[in-house]
Amino acid sequence: MKFRVRSTAEDGGDVVDEKEKAAIPIPPQLFSTPPPRPQPEESTNITDIMAFDGPGPERINGRLAMIGFVAAIAVEFTRGQGIFSQIQNGGILWFVGTTVVLSVASLVPLFKGVSADSRSKGLLTSDAELWNGRLAMVGLIALAYTEYLKGGTLV
């Protein structure tokens, strides 16, 4: 038994049978991934970037806290100095230098209009960076408070 399939276009156009349909090439765009949606442009104004809810302050402070926490723990393990003695023995210069370098490095992409969310992939997302920064800020405060209460180094 042989069946014949016919279809009509919505506008009542030509009738095309199955053999003719098979001969029509399928455009390659049907199988390609859709183009990315345009991202809204980020503001490059310094007042927007450094606003309380802007992309700059929490990201910069978080990055500084992550570096500071790891550095404080590393110096404490290797030299046996607490966080307060580290600050007294030249830590201020390291803090100022690191702050300037990381702040500039964090602000340059923001001034170019690049958002942190656009660079997020896999485990390295912008949300993970924010949470790691928040935990590092809490960790640094907890380390300083513990050393203050204990009267010496943590280890």
Write the topology of this structure:
Layout: E1 6-8, E2 15-17, H1 18-23, H2 46-49, H3 57-79, H4 83-111, H5 126-150
Antiparallel strand pairs: 1-2
Task: Characterise the protein shown here.
The structure is a single chain. The protein is mainly alpha-helical. The chain is built from five helices and two strands, in the order ββααααα. It has a two-stranded antiparallel sheet. Helix 3 runs antiparallel to helix 4 and helix 3 crosses helix 5. The chain is elongated. The mean pLDDT is 81.
Structure summarized in a few sentences:
With 155 residues, the protein is mostly helical. It has five helices and two strands, in the order ββααααα. α3 (57-79) runs antiparallel to α4.
The helicity comes to 55-70%
What are the low-pLDDT stretches, counting only 5+ consecutive residues below 50? none
End-to-end span in angstroms?
Answer: 87 Å
Number of helices: 5
Order of neighbouring strands in the sheet with most strands: 1-2
The total of beta strands comes to 2
Order of helix and strand elements from N to C terminus: EEHHHHH
The outline comes out as elongated
Q: Which structural class should the secondary elements be placed in? A: mainly alpha
**What is the rounded Rg?**
29 Å
Strand content: under 5%
Mean pLDDT, rounded to whole units?
81
Largest sheet: 2 strands, antiparallel
